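Predict structure. Chain length: 210.
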Amino acid sequence: MGIRYRRRMVLLRDDHIGDSLGAIFLDPSAEKGDEIISRLRDYLGEGVRVIHAEVSSERIEVEVEVRALAEEANRLAAAANDLSRKGVKRNAIALYRQALDLDPLNREALHGLGLLLADLKRHAEALAMLKLARESGPETADLLHALARVCMQAERTASAICYLEKGFELDPSHFGVRRALAELGRRPRPPHRTHHNSSTAPLKPVVKQT
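Prediction complete.
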């Protein structure tokens, strides 16, 4: 059931320091291919199939295949957003999770659930959802701002500043990013016009499935 689609994901080292994927960046050699794929599968879950992965000491680029009911998941995520705005948090969480059952990489559901979990002070879970949302689509200042706010709540100031500075590079006019930087006593740096996925570190293929 559902439609198969492929997506290219980018996982960055700075998002995974100290977690189950962190060791990949310490030794991204092809000889570690089986271990790398095993860790990626554990992280992404049963609903996401790893097709091809390339790694470096700074990032992992993964092509995945997902079988999803995207339209239904989008409707559930929209309904959950509405409930969340109205303060019906328990029901909103349930709808977000239903949306993710239908589409494990549904960005709207991941983002919305992450924000709601942050409101409930469940910072570790919130960061996990927001990081996966970041990895499953194009970089946005809104998402980086959300990650930064959760880090600020969790007293992870250095990480918050990193996210905010990247957000400012993407959108120097983003009010939330500018205000959060001011709250932390940081003056925004001039944008470098670089993408967060750009890197000089060479990528090494570790697996290709057919």
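Summary: The two ends are 20 Å apart (CA to CA).
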